[in-house]
Amino acid sequence: MKIKVKFFGVFRELFGGREREIELENGFYVRDLLDLLCDSYELREKVFDKSGRLKDYVTILKNRSYTQSLKGVWTELEEGDVVAILPPVTGG
Amino acid sequence: MLDSGIYNKGEMDMPSVDDLLSELPKDSGAIMTFIGVVKEVGKDDKKVIGLEIESYDEYANFTIKNICDEIKEKYGLSLAKIYHFKGSFKVGEPLVLVIVAGRHRKQTFPALQEAIERYKKELAVWKKEFYVDGSEEWIGG
Q: Which domain CATH number covers A67?
């Protein structure tokens, strides 16, 4: 299945782009996607705490819904999903 | 008056007082505005030369509409608008414009404050500061 991942703010720079299209096997969860994307120590340190949990300030949206209000990192991904990885917001 | 939302810098003109008065619903007795501006002092008191504002437009526009609808209903306002600009900005340039109008000042003062607090906390918008020493930093990241 194909999904789209969007990065904003500091994550756009850390992950090296605004958007990425990724081909995944069926049955992937948000957690699996994050593990796949965080392929360096620097990225893992930004996204996960020392015990491997998603840091509180990282917000993940799936199709504009907070995954925290779905099944958190165990939200299953489906064909055509748009996942957004957001740092804390800082309006003007 | 344009719909509330995220706009590129320069995409809309800042309304004058006459513009606001001409578009004010006739049952309004008070109109209040807030303009968020780039200031020259940034994080850790570092001197700022400019900002970059980035947004997740689809999501931020959806949130702005919700905030305006909810504030308008909660305070019985005749008008509630939020315009957040994105792009590159210099010190002194406007980043945000909030306009609320209602029958009385007693409802519009708290409505304006709540609109400001909510856009600050809820909008999918990010700010990067550029400093005179050549460094730069995403705020909150």
A: 3.10.20.30
